[in-house]
């Protein structure tokens, strides 16, 4: 069956069908016994049924939706798509339920002349761009005799990062200089290396005056600093079998190094990000990992 977006559909529920069956029995009893009270009860309950149908339809008609963005998440987590929901009729709407196809739902109310921000959940099975499909909004208010629903075609998508997993096989780290620090001259640093003969132009702040006072000549204090080798998250350093396992390991290490405030770079086949640090760099690394190998498929779907 084909459903047109933004059109309202209504059908009786199981309770509504049972209600109709009871009305039919009451009508047959009224005709059989020619009882005026039975006729009155039958017509009264029929009127309630009709009013319930109109109220259920009115509770959903005029609902307007607008996409308000989505936060990136990790694979196997729940993505939350934020949707602005408002009333075009300027009236209240109660006990509305929103959901994506084959996903869990969320219930909310809409106050007149107000916009409500609703976070509709959707399971993220794998990395890449997640497009949940048509947004379904339904209601069974006030008596549950009818189910009314509508579909909203929103152009929504959410970026899903690889699932971070700490694989014991390898870390995916490539350390420059075999992981050892590099010694370099750093005037004013805290690591004292020794004494050196004074040369014209050297800073007088580093002159060893105590040594000069002992008559051992004019010397300056020599300092060195140990600089960390460059850290690289390298595809070739991952020993896990399979693309997704490698990406999960690199994702875990990227998050860990960021929490340790370490600068690192990323090497993937055909891609390279220079070493940096901070949340923006982490976001760029995770985005690159999420879309690795999927750029061609996205371009084909867009074409």
Question: Could you give a short description of this structure?
Answer:
By secondary structure, this protein is α+β, with helices and mostly antiparallel strands.
Biggest sheet: strands, sense, closure? Answer: 5 strands, antiparallel
Shape: elongated
Number of domains: 3
Estimate what percentage of residues fall within beta strands.
Answer: 25-35%
Keywords: Membrane, Transmembrane, Transmembrane helix
Transmembrane segments: 12-31, 37-55
Features of the shown structure:
transmembrane helix, 3 domains, disordered C terminus, five-stranded antiparallel sheet, membrane, transmembrane, alpha+beta, 18 strands
